[in-house]
Amino acid sequence: MFDGQHKIAGLLWTGRREFETKIYIDYDIRLLNQTNISAHDTFAQLRFFSSIMVMKLGALFGADFEEYKKSDEEPIKTEAAFLRWLDRRDKGGVKKGDRSEQFRSFLYNSVIENSENKLKDLISASNRRSDDKPLTIDMLTKSLFACFLYRQPVEDNMATEGYKRQSESENMVALMNTLYELGLHAWNPKALTGDTTQRKLDRIFRSKSMMAWSELLRDAILAKLDLMDADERACPFYRELDKRQLDGIRQTVARLYNWMFWSDPGEEIDRVLSDNKSAVKEWFRKHDLTTGYLLGAPS
């Protein structure tokens, strides 16, 4: 492993054939990975893209998670206990905020990299959407993940049926697949200007639009699942959902797609979707995109 590869490449180009190098003998690969991440985050001259950061942090956290689950230090293993275990192991060397970011990245990565996730190929590797990939990690983080993933470590014993992280991930993938099957499968960056389907999808999957309608969709799904308790409402997908419940969620997403203003030929909605989330959400409500509408009320 070498330090200063770019400089060495330049020296090679000019004829140098001997170089000073750093060689790590008994290295800690976990620590080197964390150093690499910090170099492109906290101390960055050029930051990693969000997608790369999520992948790296999620993978690093996942490896530690597997180590923890195999350890014999604690008879009852939970996510919250795992974070405390990491703090003891690292002797407080990682800030609480950084640890929380690692944990959230682990959750995001488990959903995005799920082999069943049909939206995966539409998520941009950079921080900006592209013609071929209309979604970004940042968009998902501030919309679907913020509304449906419980992003705090739980105290549920991992060895019991009460631990529902796997179910939550599967439910999240099911929602994303529904969004794909009912609409995003038709995303076509080569569509002609004025194509109604493409115009509709472009409006639905703009950043501020997603952030606004995700909150409305969340409220509708909470009602569909009959979740009244505050603790249950905080983690709507942290449970097993049966076919009837998943079909209900699908009907709600279908109502979202069918809102008539997505296809409106006017330009007012396009101006609104460039505003802040609160303004977009208020405009939606004034034009009947409400929780009631998503649940079946006429517009």
For the structure shown, list the relevant keywords.
299 residues, mainly alpha
- The sequence of SSEs as H and E is HHHHHHHHHHHHHHH
How many helix segments? 15
SS content category? mainly alpha
What percent strand?
under 5%
Which stretches are poorly predicted, pLDDT < 50 over at least 5 residues? none
User: How does the major sheet shape up?
Assistant: none
Q: Would you tell me the overall average pLDDT?
A: 87
Would you give an account of this structure?
With 299 residues, this protein is mainly alpha-helical. Helices cover 55% and strands 0% of the residues. It is flat.
In short:
The protein is mainly alpha-helical and 299 residues long.
Topology:
Layout: H1 5-13, H2 29-39, H3 50-70, H4 79-89, H5 96-112, H6 137-142, H7 144-148, H8 165-182, H9 196-204, H10 207-224, H11 230-233, H12 243-257, H13 268-272, H14 277-286, H15 291-294
Helix pairs in contact: 2-3, 3-5, 5-8, 8-12, 10-12, 10-14
